[in-house]
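Notebook B, p. 112. Complex prediction, attempt 2.
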Amino acid sequence: MELIDRYLQAVKFWLPENQKEDIAAELSEDIDAQIAEREVQLGRSLNEAEVETILEKVGGPVVVANRYLPPKQLIGPLLFPVYRFVLKIALAAVLAPLALTWVGLAIYGRAAIGSVWGSLWMASLMTFGVVTAVFAVLERVGGSRMMDEWSPRKLPPVRNPNLIPRAGSVIELAINLGLLIFWASNMYSPSITFYPGFHVTLAPVWSYFFWGYLLTCCSITVLAAVNLWHPYWTVQRAVARLVTNGVGSALLCWLLKANIVTGFASPDLSAARALDLVRATNAWLDKLFPAGVVMVIVIALADGYRIWRLSQRRGTIGSPAALRI
Amino acid sequence: MNFEVLENLRGELRRGSVVLAVLGALREEQYGYTLRKTLGDRGMAMDEGTLYPLLRRLEAQGLLSSVWREEDKRNKRFYRISKDGEQILEQLLTEWRVIDQSIQEIMKEQSNGTH
């Protein structure tokens, strides 16, 4: 019957060359046997619709053929979790800078937004393709076997998200102490000499920034010292970090909008040129304001997430003493 | 009760015993269609998409042998268990009985523990 021949031809299409005739012959024999049995039951020959029902029950050509093929996976179950992890990291590493560029362009000008959007897609596809290809090759060359080569001793130490690395606190403390000394001794006056012969005059509002940053710097220094002494995040310290970062960021945003530079003075600089320079500097600072706002939002989100995480886990993990300070 | 979960678990349970059933049934020579009928009649119904690839795999592993022969004016492929297949079947049956015994013991202990 033509319907059966068409069906067998479709199944054979998906089978390996050296097996297709053999498999098709056996399948044909089974279908013939099913038809013969049904014909005995009915006492007549089957019509095309009845044969069609039998073929539908046997299964779609691709499905039937696939059952004869050895299981094939581009990336097997052993490597797949590693593949997914690496893909996430790679996508984040490639897309984050592009996304930031896109945000920057959205803020400062729309000329190239479309092309960056296109680049985002291209970069995503390229990353996905390259990572998938690498893992597919690893799968072929027996990379799954690497998963068996492990030792409990080589596993990373238990990660505590509330642990504050002491090295980070030491660096923070050293930088802030240095900054504090520099700030207190050099930045008090609104007339600042950067190097001999070159003076910058700042607006009277500078005194707010001076004291504001001095206090913020002191707070960060104290916080870094406490973190060094007791290296676990607590809700209180996370809130303190949010407040200091928030005050510092707010001051920065204000500074960018405050037309803070009122004069430049240098023996080689004419009055007109100095005025141009003042205007240009303030204009550039003003242009940086949106970037400052984005930075404030990112910092606030990160600090806010830390507080949320600590409040969620409070009493369930970490050292109980850590939550007291 | 989640019917879909039960069906999946039942499928997994039966999948492990399919080889036993096929090797056991092929202690007598049969061709694919009659083998399927035999298994179906004894409560181990299997569709052709599962049975024929399994037969080929078992033959490739040397546990079965097959031969094409004409019967009732139709060419049919007859399968029969091989010597290696018989040995493997014996070992699998022993394993099957051990598993059965273990499950029975576990169920008995649980039953005694709860009452």
